[in-house]
Amino acid sequence: MAADDLPEDEPKDLAGDPSPDGEVVVSGGEDVSPYRNLFVPLVVVPAMIVIVVLLVYTLVGAIAGEEASVDENLRGVLHGGSNERTQAAYALVAQLAENHRALGDGEELPWEISEELAPNLAAALEGLGDDEAQLQYVLSSALHHLGDPAGLAGLRKILTLGEEADPDGKLKFHALYCLGSRGEPETFEDIRAFLESEDTGLRILSAGFLRFYPEELSIPALEGALGDHDLAVRLNAAISLSWLGNSAGAMLLKDGARRDLYEAEQVRDPRKYARPEVVRGNRLRAVEGLARLGRTEDRAFFEELVADDEDLEVREAAMRALETGK
To answer: What is the pTM of this model?
Structure first.
């Protein structure tokens, strides 16, 4: 999955309402994942349905054509040809997203949803062939959003896809987003298992999403991830722990707030952390994570950043940390 496929701000743009506690920690490498030079953003707490809609745009672009009702799109999913089924499924998911947003805003739902929708989608999902992984993902995500157990089973199947079915890892990447952002205890092991993946991008996501799970499950796993060989995985684990009030990663966050950590990484591998905006973003998230812990012993460090750091945004983040820590 290429960098341009999933830019840092894409999920919040599509959501229309950025998450107040979003975090972005990225890997600075050019070759850390089978996603074809994946630039891995970790935007935490995107609404699950937003990620479904995100895939509509990243995989096939915006849906074109005459607007159809939910029932008409459902008929297309159930009885259409290959192309018609795919377009109808994407259009249906977009309609679910519109309802999701309207519900959150206290507005009247723009699309009427019948009780038959979930069981019919589950039947359509069951009838898909092994060569229709993309459509499997879309239907599974929609069903999971609707609370149908077939959706969870479908997403778990996506997580096990091999390279032939999911050659660039996009579907697995998005399925991990869908499950991890909800933090349901029954999916903890599905997400935790990716801490052991050979794929750095999946480890990065796993470390970021584990904070949504019960502390008794997530904290031991995240503390273990602090020893990962990849810096972005370690930083995401430390940030997740900070959200849980756990200071096991505090020293790593302090290091992550300094520029020289990334300079040292780049010395070892010139491809890593060559983009200033990546370094800045990681430093900001590290400062915010350290501030979240509220430790009095970190005030002197924040004061040092305010006084001496050459990056205005980092100085401002450190100043906010001092103000909130009063």
So the answer is: 0.78
